[in-house]
Write a structure and sequence with these properties.
The complex is a heterodimer of chains A (557) and B (349).
Chain A (H helix, E strand, L loop, with lengths): L2 H6 L25 H5 L4 H29 L10 H36 L8 H23 L13 H4 L4 H28 L12 H33 L12 H34 L7 H14 L15 H29 L8 H23 L5 H4 L3 H25 L1 H5 L1 E2 L2 H28 L13 H31 L1 E2 L50
Helix pairs in contact in A: 3-4, 3-5, 3-17, 4-5, 4-7, 4-8, 4-9, 4-14, 5-7, 7-8, 8-9, 8-10, 9-10, 9-11, 9-12, 9-14, 10-11, 11-12, 12-14, 12-16, 14-16, 16-17
Chain B lengths: L1 H8 L7 H34 L16 H30 L6 E8 L2 E5 L5 E3 L1 E5 L4 E7 L4 E5 L4 E5 L5 E5 L5 E7 L12 E6 L1 H12 L7 H4 L11 H12 L24 E3 L5 E3 L2 H9 L22 H13 L21
Parallel strand pairs in B: 1-5, 4-10
Antiparallel strand pairs in B: 1-2, 2-3, 5-8, 6-7, 6-9, 9-10, 11-12
Helix pairs in contact in B: 2-3, 6-8
Classes of the chains: A mainly alpha (557), B alpha+beta (349).
């Protein structure tokens, strides 16, 4: 490819100065036709396409969230009727969970970074990787078609027998989610095989970046849990259309069976969403405090621990469903273990800063927000797991606030941190640091202003999924809606300066953060096959910032 | 102190014995969470300033935790979490186990109202009358989709599941009126499925019961809306006897203690029954309901699996009425734990 084409592909960019890279153009300009993007097998391009789509889905889900919050501004009807409201909160949940949080970090940043971090040229199955993107989009379009043509009003949990009785369009949306499940499985399978077989010389299991460990644990859950969701969704669709009689007691079924099957997937799915965030944060905190991770093995194993225990904690969603008291006790204790594993991570992240060299850049600001949401979201989760406290809180706004703190808060913080941390890696441009910090502050504040009132609403006893509410709850609802507006404003600022940086941003250095993470050991943006010249080797562990003159033999734990 | 905490946390009034237990654990958890988060947060912020970057390429020391440190990281949270679990689970078992002398009220959720039936007779829609300082057991079911019975001031909640009975109990501590909310999403008017619990003092309660029995019920608006459930003149057990005769229970079940095709109803409730697979269980509301809906699930030893299911043939109130009827066919001391002394019968072989 000629140098002129690479310049033409980046309008407004400073002409590429690196003459010696002529024969190895970066992945962004290696092929500029639409086809070269849509049918690419390059994990980096697939990652970027994932990023574009999940951002779009995040926008759609965010619009639904704002509709819900605006409706709740007054105790009575505000802007929409009850049916529209029920569809709006269902769609907010379905879009955010299945189309944003599950694919976001693995699809966009996992795809992009995993091979780079392992010193591989691509993932193990590049075609399967492309297929997973198109499966996601197929499922998404079927689901969105269903939302436009009727919508669904069951809540994202699809609880039977309501979901088999409702007159709204359940089938296409559940079928869409079913197809999206296959995308998730394909991504997971790809990451597992890549991690096992494609590590470069020198990268042993305990020298893998912690992001890879987190992605690996996530991938295991995706492969093992998602088939159960597929099964349960098919059964609901079957019952809705053909009256099978599996979950509906009127047909001889058992509605609690549905809850068991649903949460057997959907509880581990929480860790599909949040484990990648833990991985991202391990990278961010190491880079910005220039330190090896304090307790590397503890952090790596706790990811696997969460993935494992996460499979045996689903019953804590059902403490008041009529399951036996003994079951409740077993599930409660196992849930506590998830809290312990998360606590290990939190302590080790804070420990990483000890004797480090902190540079308070935008990704680090998101790390602070992440730490905060993980601690309070996690501790409220432990409080729920005491079983007796779950009784008053169950299905109130306290639950809503809790999972928006731990699952959404942590994931959003990590997604925004990844976006900023890897922006120069992916696009070779730099965003405006000042605006980055301002919008991070707005997003973190907005998140708190939205959900702290919801914790209090839950304490006061306001149930979730309420279209109208008693007047005594209004003040806190107004506060929450105001917070949501602040949050939206923060995201708007991010969208503006990041788009601006993409087009007009100054060229970033290859490793602007001076990180010793493995993914930074190649050009930014990387060439199509990730590395130029011979296979790179990795003599040191990732994030090794010791002065080479003083370096001793590290005795890792 | 409690008042202050309640105001900070926006907790509703405490009006049941369970509310006091739950709130105490709540304060304990909140206090520890706030203190430990403050400690972690302060440490983190201190590190951020103390270890700020001084030169762009600053080298750092290689620090790894000792085994002792990691042990502390694991054990410290574990000790607190398990302590909370022990307290919380003890209270959970307590609220899941109604005392034997509790007064029973049947609760049925339907889109979008709550119906209450008392074995003694009166019924109510959306208004539940209970006496103060006396345990009340709620036997909850649903006629259509899932609902959940929630009284914030009592801190109790239990799902209403169609096709089965769930139970919870409470003991209200002060007379007054408390809101009931539905917390399991149940469709269009989920947020309008509101009701109230009226807690009466002992004298008021006696007066109320007397009033109900004298038939003033007929003049009440809520009772008029309820005629589909049970005619207000009939007591629930009588209604159950009638329904049982209509649907043909007595073709196979006797009420005089003699075994027939199925076990007799006399003394059935509260009896320790041996099942075909050798397991022994106590016959309670849940077991009787299940035997009507899914007769083959837990077959009593010595009886053939010939009973048809009544799933879809009996409505929620009819099922409740039959259960209540069977409960009247028992020796008087069954609720006080002497269930094993109930009538003994030989099943046919």
């Amino acid at each position: 490819m000629s140098p002129s084409s690479s310049i033409a592909a980046e309008p407004g960019a400073v002409p590429v100065p690196d003459e010696h890279h002529d024969h190895h153009p970066n992945y962004l300009v290696d092929g500029t036709t639409l086809k070269s993007w849509l049918l690419t097998l390059d994990h980096k391009r697939i990652g970027v396409m994932y990023l574009i789509w999940v951002l779009l889905f995040f926008f759609i889900g965010g619009i639904y969230a704002l509709i819900v919050r605006l409706e709740l501004l007054t105790p009575g009807p505000t802007i929409i009727d009850a049916m529209t409201y029920n569809r709006a909160f269902t769609m907010h949940g379905v879009v955010m969970i299945f189309l944003f949080m599950i694919p976001a970090i693995p699809g966009a940043f996992g795809n992009f970074m995993l091979p780079l971090m392992l010193g591989a040229k691509d993932v193990a199955f590049p075609k399967l990787n492309l297929l997973s993107l198109y499966l996601l989009l197929t499922g998404a379009f079927i689901a969105i078609w269903g939302m436009i043509n009727g919508g669904m009003d069951t809540g994202w949990t699809f609880y039977t027998p309501y979901s088999t009785h409702t007159t709204t369009t359940v089938a296409p949306i559940l079928f869409g989610a079913f197809i999206i499940g296959f995308s998730s499985i394909a991504t997971g399978l790809n990451f597992i095989v890549t991690t096992h077989t494609m590590r470069a010389p020198g990268i042993t299991w305990f020298k893998m970046p912690l992001f890879v460990w987190a992605m690996y644990a996530t991938a295991c859950i995706q492969v093992l849990a998602t088939p159960v969701l597929g099964l349960v969704l098919l059964l609901v669709v079957g019952e809705h259309l053909f009256h099978f009689g599996i979950f509906d007691p009127a047909l001889g079924g058992d509605p609690v069976l549905f809850q068991h099957l649903f949460w057997f997937y959907s509880h581990p799915a929480v860790y599909i969403m949040v484990l990648p965030s833990f991985g991202v944060m391990s990278e961010v905190v190491a880079t910005f405090s220039r330190k090896n991770i304090f307790g590397y093995r503890a952090v790596a194993f706790s990811s696997l621990g969460i993935a494992f225990v996460g499979f045996f904690a689903w019953g804590h969603h059902m403490f008041v469903s009529g399951q036996s008291t003994f079951n409740a006790g077993v599930f409660a204790v196992l849930t506590m273990l998830v809290g312990v594993f998360t606590a290990i991570k939190v302590f080790n992240w804070v420990g990483t800063v000890y004797k480090g060299a902190v540079d308070f850049k935008t990704p680090f600001a998101y790390f602070c927000g992440f730490l905060y949401f993980t601690v309070f979201g996690g501790m409220t989760g432990v409080a729920f797991a005491t079983a007796s406290l779950d009784v008053p809180w169950h299905d109130t706004y306290f639950v809503v606030a809790h999972f928006h703190f731990i699952m959404v808060g942590a994931t959003i913080m990590a997604f925004m941190a990844s976006l900023h941390y890897w922006f120069p890696k992916m696009f070779g441009k730099m965003y405006h640091e000042g605006w980055g910090l301002v919008s991070a502050a707005l997003i973190i504040l907005g998140f708190n202003a939205t959900f702290i009132p919801q914790f209090l609403l839950g304490n006061a006893g306001m149930p979730r999924r309420y279209y109208e509410y008693p007047e005594r709850f209004q003040a806190l609802n107004v506060a929450s809606t105001a917070g949501a507006s602040l949050l939206a404003f923060g995201f708007l600022i991010s969208a503006i300066y990041l788009t601006h940086a993409l087009v007009f941003g100054r060229r970033a250095a290859s490793n602007p953060w001076r990180s010793r993470g493995y993914e930074w050991m190649t050009e930014s943006p990387p060439p199509t096959h990730n590395f130029v010249g011979p296979q790179p080797t990795y003599p040191e562990e990732p994030h090794f910032y010791v002065d080479p003159k003083k370096a001793e033999v590290p005795d890792a734990v | 102190m409690n008042e202050l905490m309640n105001n900070i946390l926006f907790l509703p009034e405490r009006a049941s014995t369970f509310a006091e237990r739950v709130d105490n654990l709540h304060y304990f958890v909140i206090a520890v969470t706030m203190l430990s988060s403050l400690a972690v947060g302060t440490t983190a912020v201190y590190f951020f300033f103390r270890y700020r970057r001084r030169t762009p390429n600053q080298a750092t020391e290689y620090v790894v935790p000792s085994v002792k440190t990691e042990f502390l990281f694991v054990s410290l949270p574990l000790v607190f979490f398990l302590t909370w679990f022990v307290i919380g689970f003890r209270d959970f078992v307590w609220v899941s186990t109604p005392p034997k002398d509790a007064m029973d009220v049947y609760v049925m959720g339907k889109q979008w109202m709550w119906k209450f039936s008392y074995p003694e007779g009166p019924n109510g829609v959306n208004v539940l009358h209970v006496p103060a300082n006396r345990p009340v057991r709620l036997l909850i079911t649903s006629r259509d989709v899932l609902h959940s019975f929630f009284v914030p001031s009592f801190r109790i909640k239990m799902d209403a599941v169609p096709g089965r009975y769930t139970q919870t109990w409470f003991e209200a501590t002060k007379p007054g009126t408390y809101q009931i909310l539905c917390t399991e999403y149940c469709g269009l008017s989920h947020s309008k499925m509101l009701g109230e619990v009226v807690v009466l003092s002992a004298e008021q309660w006696d007066a109320w019961v007397k009033e109900q029995r004298q038939g003033y019920l007929a003049n009440r608006q809520d009772a008029l809306a309820d005629v589909s459930l049970v005619p207000h003149t009939a007591r629930m057990a009588e209604q159950g006897q009638k329904v049982a005769a209509e649907v043909g229970c007595f073709k196979c079940h006797t009420v005089n203690g003699e075994p027939h095709i199925g076990p007799t109803f006399l003394g059935l409730y509260g009896k320790q029954e041996t099942l075909q697979d050798g397991v022994s269980l106590r016959v309670d509301e849940a077991y009787i309901t299940q035997s009507m809906m899914d007769p083959g699930a837990h077959l009593t030893a010595g009886f053939p699996n010939v009973m048809p299911t009544f799933q879809g043939k009996l409505t929620g109130p009819q099922t409740a009425a039959i259960v209540e009827y069977i409960k009247t066919l028992r020796t008087p001391d069954i609720r006080t734990g002497a269930s094993s002394q109930g009538p003994v019968y030989e099943p046919i072989q």
